[in-house]
Amino acid sequence: MIGRATAGLERPPRAWLQALLGIPDVDARLKWHAVWPHLSRLPHNDVRLLDAGCGSSHWLAEIATRRPGWRLTGVDCSPRRLLEAQSLCGRLDLQNVTLAQADFLEYQADGEFDVVLSVCAAHYLAGAGKGTELFLRFASWIRVGGRILLMVPRRSADVRSFGFLRPVGKRTAFSSDELAGLCRASGLTVQTITGAVGPLGIWAKQIGWFASRKGRLLSAVLWPVRLMLAELDAKQRFPSQGGSLMLVALATKGPAVDHTA
């Protein structure tokens, strides 16, 4: 166990301040806009959430400031990332966050959580041929009626139509059918699978990639443009079949539930 944290902020920092402080950057905002609406429907207190692949804990920090009544746990296999997470939680005086170093496939928490969140992490293990094992582990961590909320890269020819895009890399990308199949094989009931990060978001990401190759000054100059594109992208809606870079899946353990607070 690396450290503990309780939220000392009633409101999260604004987007520009978060970036200046190194909390979420524009890429993180793109993902946040797709995930937070699902979490915001849950009760404000007594929710136990696990972030699988928490990295430096930027997501946990943002959730903790919005939901100080939640009990949050972050798990990651990287000691360096967890030290960064401990530092961030300490700076923000967060005390409702617990951090643990562990491999996903070895972490034990039978039925302990109401929500398991995993943002752009599951596809690395799935790419190693351990997708089914990983999803079974996800299912074991939540109580009956609990929720799994995942974001993964979407398998799509549409994304490749943006000719200047760099390759996704050696990761597993999913179709909505593949993602649903893994959920069902693990005993999970799929509630929704939707697209996230559309054309405007893709432009925001690629402008950032281009600017980073040219130096910090250009990155700083183009940052407001990227943020504007990210905010506009959040207002779009994409079917899981096309038009987006990522998929967001919400699944439950057991029958379908009303996931409003």
CATH class of the largest domain: Alpha Beta
Q: What is the name of the CATH superfamily of the largest domain?
A: Vaccinia Virus protein VP39
Widest sheet, order of strands: 1-4-3-2-5-6-9-7-8
Distance between the termini: 31 Å
Order of helices and strands: EHHEHEHEEHEHHEHHEE
So, CATH architecture of the largest domain? 3-Layer(aba) Sandwich
**Computed Rg:** 18 Å
Percentage of β-strand residues: 15-25%
> Runs with pLDDT <50, length 5+?
1-24, 160-170
Per DSSP, the total helix count is 9
Report helical residue fraction. 40-55%
What structural class do the secondary elements suggest? Answer: alpha/beta
Shape: globular
Largest sheet: 9 strands, mixed
How many beta-strand elements? 9
Mean pLDDT: 77
Structurally, how many domains make up the residues? 2
- Here the CATH topology of the largest domain equals Rossmann fold
